[in-house]
Design brief:
Layout (H helix, E strand, L loop, with lengths): L2 H7 L5 H9 L3 E3 L2 E2 L14 E3 L2 E2 L7 E6 L28 E3 L7 E7 L2 H8 L7 E8 L4 H9 L14 E9 H4 L3 H6 L10 E9 L6 H8 L3 E10 L2 E2 L9 E3 L2 H8 L1
Parallel strand pairs: 7-11
Antiparallel strand pairs: 1-2, 1-3, 3-4, 5-7, 5-13, 6-7, 8-10, 8-11, 9-10, 11-12
Helix pairs in contact: 1-2
């Protein structure tokens, strides 16, 4: 294994940071200072130190979590429930969330201590797709869908979004779909306006700008009232997981994240 990959996986720092540590003479292998970040090491036999502290080859953990609405994607917070508050039975030292979901967004969130997996999922050039289910106020004609799929402006000074995929499931009026649970519990202001246009569907993107799905649909004239991430790469949210529940990922599920 490469030294920089070992240190990144052991949560010593990001790839850029661990390269700096190695080049700065802060890393020893079997008592010898190594300044080549790409040096090969045996993570089972070699004694690897950073800043005079032995770095253990920690067991990697991978969790899929069905994030409920109302909690924030953070380790701790004085005022709000966080995603880590749902893992009180687990040793979460060194574990972090891969990306984040807004407070009012539900769905699939990965938590792990594998820095390399985090890099593979979040690195823009990897083009890992994330799929979201939404309910929105408004409507989309074929031209608006084409613009969403080819690239849309969502902010002054920003480049167009990368090509996306959109699939509309339902389109009509609030009066027609007011009994849909996600729509009914997320937005009731229009209960007295049954002619308000609404639609639901899936939007798949391969980048992760702040509030990107909401901003893309807003730029198309739609206002998102419910949002749930349903997939990352080839990994689908397990519908048997209720909001607030989690499970460990199997090896084949981990591979589905990036292949």
């Amino acid at each position: 294994m490469r030294l920089d990959k070992f240190l990144t996986g052991a949560m010593v720092g990001t790839r850029k940071e661990v390269v700096s540590y190695v080049q700065g003479g802060l890393v020893k292998v079997n008592g010898e200072i190594i300044k080549e970040a790409f040096a090969k090491v045996d993570n089972e036999k070699d004694i690897i130190e950073y800043n005079s502290e032995i770095i253990k080859n920690n067991k990697k953990v991978y969790y899929i979590f069905n994030k409920p609405k109302g909690c924030i994607t953070a380790r701790s917070d004085e005022f709000h429930t966080t995603v880590f508050d749902y893992f009180k039975q687990e040793d979460m030292k060194g574990v972090f969330h891969v990306g984040r979901l807004d407070k009012d967004t539900e769905g699939l969130l990965i938590l792990t201590n594998d820095g390399n997996l985090n890099h593979d999922i979040m690195y823009p050039e990897k083009h890992i797709e994330k799929t979201y289910f939404f309910w929105a106020l408004g409507s989309l004609d074929e031209e608006k869908k084409r613009i969403l799929e080819t690239g849309i402006s969502i902010g002054e000074g920003e480049t167009l979004t990368k090509p996306a995929k959109i699939r509309i499931l339902k389109s009509g009026t609030y009066g027609e779909f007011k009994n849909q649970e996600e729509l009914m519990t997320s937005y009731t202001m229009y209960s007295q306006h049954p002619d308000q246009s609404v639609l639901s569907g899936y939007l798949t993107i391969s980048e992760g700008r702040k509030h990107q799905v909401k901003r893309m649909l807003k730029a198309s004239g739609c206002y998102v009232v419910y949002l749930k991430r349903t997939a990352i790469g080839g990994l689908m949210l397990d519908e048997n997981l209720k909001p607030g529940q989690y499970k460990s990922l199997e090896e084949n599920e981990i591979k589905n994240l990036i292949f």
